[in-house]
Amino acid sequence: MNLKRTNQTKAAITAVGGYVPDAILSNEDLEKMVDTNDAWITSRTGIKERRILKDPNKATSYMAIEAAQDLISNHQIDPSTIDMVLVATITPDLPVAATAAYVASSIGANNAFAYDLSAACSGFLYGMSTSAAYINSGRYKKVLLIGADKMSSIVDYTDRTTCIIFGDGAGAVLFEPSSNEFGWEDEYLRSDGTERMSLRIKAGGSLYPTSQESLDNNWHNLFQEGKTVFKYAVSEMANAAEEVLKRNNLKGEEISYLVPHQANKRIVDATANRIGLEEDQVLMNITYYGNTTAATIPLLLNDNKSKFKRGDKLIFAAFGGGFTWGAAYLSWAY
Ligand code: UT7
Questions:
Q1: What is the phi/psi pair of residue 7, to 5°?
Q2: What mean pLDDT value characterizes the chain?
Q3: Nearest to 259, CA basis, from 230, 234, 282
Q4: DSSP tag of 186
Q5: Predicted local distance difference test score (pLDDT) of residue 5
Q6: Quick one: which atom of ligand 1 is closest to the CA of 162?
Q7: Mean of pLDDT values over 162-181
Q8: What is the CA(42)–ligand 1 centre distance, in A?
Q9: Interatomic CA distance for residues 60 and 68, integer angstroms
Q10: Structural contact between residues 9 and 178, judged by C-beta atoms closer than 8 angstroms
Q11: Which is catalytic among the residues 239, 261, 285, 302?
């Protein structure tokens, strides 16, 4: 279904914020932890370093709150006017008790309701769809969407195929009704649960509750069949982006920026090539942050916000565990 419509409220991103922890985990640091090397990691993923939230007493909410406060202070938002707080994450502070509720209370969003959204690396993309739908419906006026993950809390730092990829971070955007013709234009979202074991934390849920067996077998850490995920991601992220361009009659040269989930530079390159983009049209932060899961896209927006001009055409694309994936088209409204 094409979401293009006329004479209806469009949802616009009106504010952006972000946070990454100070501590850096470089490829050279990883060389001392597992059998790997900087040349392999750089050529296979594009990553040089990641940020790690080292303090064991600080969790995902800490970074989400920092990102939200950055947005609130940059754009002088009164937090009591926020209607809804969504946190996209796969690393909630607690398995039960929405991290978003804690974040909302901590930032003074006392008139908001709040919940978490779990769709792994597609979490922020799906969250944008949810936020835009609430605004489009006219039901709410200010939706704060945060993507935040403390991946270091679930990564196995003895597994060289996984630990080299991930980092910690958070980013936030505010969705409001657009005051002009720009905003959320279209989306194409998909999932395929038959591949859920290819990228997973096996235990701690209702299928494999925590047990001595789960602890002994390391089933509480993130595990991925790298090759399988890569193969799907390369084709589906590109397919989704191509579909969004096609049905909106957009050509590569008309796109201002691709804002892709940062899992592997080779996956992003494949998507950019498929839709005919030049390198300067593709936003990247994987080199310095690695894959921050739900935070990659809002961190890209935050790091590049000074570049955006009203009317710029942004294409978002993501692929992640579930599997979940998709692409979206937004015209920048401020
Ligand atoms: O964001 C959520 C979704 N996640 C993703 O999209 C990740 C998708 N997958 C990937 O990005 C890639 O599959 C990886 C980066 C995880 C792995 O890259 P790859 O090119 O698929 O490597 P591979 O697993 O095919 O391994 C190639 C070789 C193997 O050695 P042999 O069997 O050819 O001798 C691995 O043992 O590279 C070896 N290898 C490593 N060598 C040095 C695997 N990991 C490492 C490492 N350092 N860290």
A1: 55, 30
A2: 96
A3: 282
A4: E
A5: 53
A6: 16
A7: 97
A8: 12
A9: 12
A10: yes
A11: 261
Q: For 179-204, what is the mean pLDDT?
A: 97
In angstroms, what CA-CA distances link 225 with 35, 105, 181, 195? 18, 38, 43, 10
Taken in order 242, 258, 40, 47, the sign of the CA dihedral is: negative
Residue 128 in tokens: 């944008």
Domains identified in the chain and CATH numbers:
11-177 (3.40.47.10), 184-331 (3.40.47.10)
pLDDT value, residue 222: 98
More confident residue, 79 or 5: 79
Nearest to residue 143, comparing CAs of 70, 71, 60? 71
3-state secondary structure of 238: helix
pLDDT at 3: 58
Task: Tell me the DSSP string of 307-328.
Answer: G--TT-EEEEEEEETTTEEEEE
pLDDT of residue 4: 56
| Contact present, 316 and 298 (Cβ < 8 Å) | no
Taking 70 as the threshold, does the pLDDT of residue 1 lie above it? no
Q: Is 248 annotated as catalytic?
A: no
The identity of residue 101, as a single letter, is A
User: For residue range 91-123, what is the model confidence (pLDDT) as tens digits?
Assistant: 999 999 999 999 999 999 999 999 999 999 999
The 10s digit of each residue's pLDDT in 194-240 is: 999 999 999 999 999 999 999 999 999 999 999 999 999 999 999 99
Within 6 Å (CB) of ligand 1, which residues are found?
Answer: 36, 40, 44-45, 121, 160-161, 164, 199, 224, 226-227, 229-230, 233, 263-264, 267, 291, 320
The number of C-alpha atoms within 13 Å of 266 and in the hemisphere containing its C-beta is: 15
| Rounded distance between C-alpha atoms, residue 161 and residue 177, angstroms | 43
d(CA 147, CA 285): 15
From the CA of 84, how far away is ligand 1's center (Å)? Answer: 39
